[in-house]
Amino acid sequence: MAKQLYLIKEGEISLKGLNRGFFEKRLKNNVKDKLRPYHSTTQRQKGRLFLFVDEDCPAERIERALSTTFGIAGYAKALMCQKDTDVIRAKTEELLSGLDGSSLKTFKIAVRREDKSFPVHSYDMACLLAQTVNKVFPHLSVDLRNPDLTVHLEIRNQAFLYTSDSPGPRGLPAGTAGRGLLLLSGGIDSPVAAYTMAKRGVKLDCLYFHAYPYTSDEALEKVKKLASLIAPYLNGTRLFVIPYTDAQLNIRDKSRADATTLMFRAAMMKTAGRIVAMEGMQCIVTGEALSQVASQTLPAMAFTDSMSDYLVLRPLCGSDKEEIIALAKKIGTYETSILPYEDCCVIFSPKHPLTNPDRQEMIELYESLGMDEFIEKALLETRIYTFNGNGEEGETFSLKDKIEGDIIEQN
Ligand code: ATP
Ligand code: MG
Question: Which residue, by CA, sits nearest to atom 17 of ligand 1?
Fold first, then answer.
């Protein structure tokens, strides 16, 4: 079957030294995973990944995959041909014949001659291709600074031609930095926190604390929708939904009123830590931003931090709400995040929460609540929803079944 060809520009990966192969391999696998069931192959060449995909795979599908895969600085649909000037000129004509030139006024040729043994130098090659452009579009003139059309030629093991290239999301491929657990609420911040850490290569699963009936089924649906929206950037994800009503009621009944949010957050850290340990992950990620609410002051975060046995990453800590909203809009989660269903934190939050808690006092209060038994019980009732790298929902199972399955597998 004929193949569609895409040229992928690597971003930060190209700065890597000896471990570059590790990053490139992960990038390649992440792209191929997203394109399944369509078959694709790749070829790696200095700073580039060439992707060949079955002809029947829709272009939008490929472009959606490439525009959401971290590690990609840019990509373009390309044509490949022999390194022969006549063949290259003929291919350029073919490339241009697929374009509507009526709205174009200016053009430029960009030649990259990676194969230095190719006998025609870059400037001469650019002049030759300029003639070809003018043969197809006689009305175009050259503008090297701000052209409407750029024809790119790269001479490598073969010649590669492309016109417009689209920006990729940059960053590093999901999975190259290890694995983590995102605390995903229905708000604006946590999906953006997921995007931000995934961009640095962390492979993320999500955990949502669900306090039914205080939080509705619609609130859960909203969180599932958010998980599906961020799943492409995460190269697929699992959403752990833990029933937390009894745990929260226990906090409400036994804690000082002004410390209930802090106790809830401490319990969240402990619970997340249990899943992190079970799954062999390395960190917890939250959408907290310094001083956004009472539980996100420095003393409050220092306390919740001290309740976690794992590294807690708060990538939005230094971000302004407007900056977070702009990013949420860019990644397409904002409209879902602002749907009105209440989060459980909001429902159980005290009127006058502590902003400057005494850490030792809080630790003692937490220890008096007897949370462990509630956490263990809730873990047994946790459900796991799965989403692939295209955001499609897959199978659902219980954490209990998964643990039992893992044990059978190990034996
Ligand atoms: P967001 O907009 O992401 O909900 P927020 O501004 O509402 O954040 P908080 O409700 O204080 O802030 O929560 C801070 C962070 O704690 C969230 O970004 C998220 O990481 C985590 N979190 C809060 N509630 C939940 C929940 N019910 N389940 C999972 N994580 C939660
Ligand atoms: Mg929230």
Answer: 287
Please tell me if the CB atom of residue 344 comes closer than 6 angstroms to any atom of ligand 1: yes
Q: Tally the domains of the chain.
A: 2
Task: Find the ligand nearest to 180 CA.
Answer: 1
Which residue puts its alpha carbon closest to atom 18 of ligand 1?
287
Q: Is the dihedral of CA 320, 321, 327, 330 positive or negative?
A: negative
In a domain, 369, yes or no: yes
User: Which residue range(s) make up the domain with 202?
Assistant: 179-410
What is the Cα–Cα distance from 251 to 259, expressed in whole angstroms? 9
As a whole number, mean pLDDT of residues 195-214 equals 96
- Residues 344-351, mean pLDDT to the nearest whole number: 68
| Judgement on whether residues 352 and 209 belong to the same structural domain of the protein | yes
301 CB neighbour count, 10 Å cutoff: 19
Give CA–CA dist 210/250, Å, rounded. Answer: 15
Going by CA atoms, what residue is nearest to atom 1 of ligand 1? 187
Residues 162-202: tens digit of each pLDDT: 998 899 999 999 999 999 999 999 999 999 999 999 999 99
Confirm whether pTM is higher than 0.70: yes
Q: Is the CB of 183 under 6 A from ligand 1?
A: yes
